[in-house]
């Protein structure tokens, strides 16, 4: 990660001395929200939003804090998060258009990047809320979330976010948070491949703490069954319908052989034989052989955001086990069927949690 030195919005940052560090820092102290907002619930406009825990403003960097020349001390006054779709209208009016252009360029160069950016934002939000903690690298005081099993050698798009941050810093130094950049990038990536758009309330603060242990246990995995997935999403304040809709992001993107090998060689009854045979061509049975070979999550329209993912599930052609469990004689079958018949319903439901 590139070190950006301007990570603190001048208008809203609360500054104080942090005795936990040997150096002076600038950051946002913990902001408390209404009693109805629990610390593990993701909320913004819908549910995938600002964490109700430690929320701060570093830059999109590998360092957990920003060194400041001179002692900066202010009293620990309460800070109130005021999220707004017009948050940057005055402070950085070109921010959103700059991000949009950069994301369009990145996706035009590599269509897979759209899925990667949506997933990057999701993995950030699922741990501590949407606070950009997934961007923090290892340091003497931080164990990076990137090392979690479901992130390591899997989550990608960091260079794109760094590039976006650099462009935004050039026009508005120290104004736009990395958490907001991740959120806007995911939305714009969806649009770039024909997916829905949605209005974002901005003003998130960046975390200076990592949630490696949470990332290791709380992120959904490709092996999860329906009960496990339902429980994980419910713990974040997300409904079963939210879970199915968000799983529809697998209408784009690719997966590594190691994540679907067991499914295509398992001789299960919930996989189409022809589909399994096709996928075996580039995914050998032996562990360690071709582990990183890629296959599209949606074999029909892998580069377009549509509802074919759900049609595939009905045909038993879900690539990951965690995909196919959504249509396997369980409680979510009816939602999958509904989305397979109505792309507009899927599109509408997909953006609600964000």
Which structural traits does this protein have?
Peroxidase, domain 1; Peroxidase, domain 2; 13 helices; two-stranded antiparallel sheet; 36% helix; 354 residues; calcium; Peroxidase; glycoprotein; Peroxidases_AS; disulfide bond; mainly alpha
* Computed Rg: 21 Å
What do we call the CATH topology of the largest domain?
Peroxidase, domain 1
SS field, number of helical segments:
13
| The CATH class of the largest domain | Mainly Alpha
Structural class: mainly alpha
Neighbour order of strands in the largest sheet: 1-2
Secondary-structure element pattern, one letter each? HHHHHHHEHHEHHHH
Question: How many beta-strand elements?
Answer: 2
CATH architecture of the largest domain: Orthogonal Bundle
Mean pLDDT: 82
Helix content: 25-40%
How far from one another are the termini?
26 Å
Biggest sheet: strands, sense, closure? Answer: 2 strands, antiparallel
Q: Would you identify the regions where 5 or more consecutive residues have pLDDT less than 50? A: 1-46, 50-59, 61-80
User: What is the overall silhouette?
Assistant: globular
Strand content: under 5%
The total tally of domains equals 2
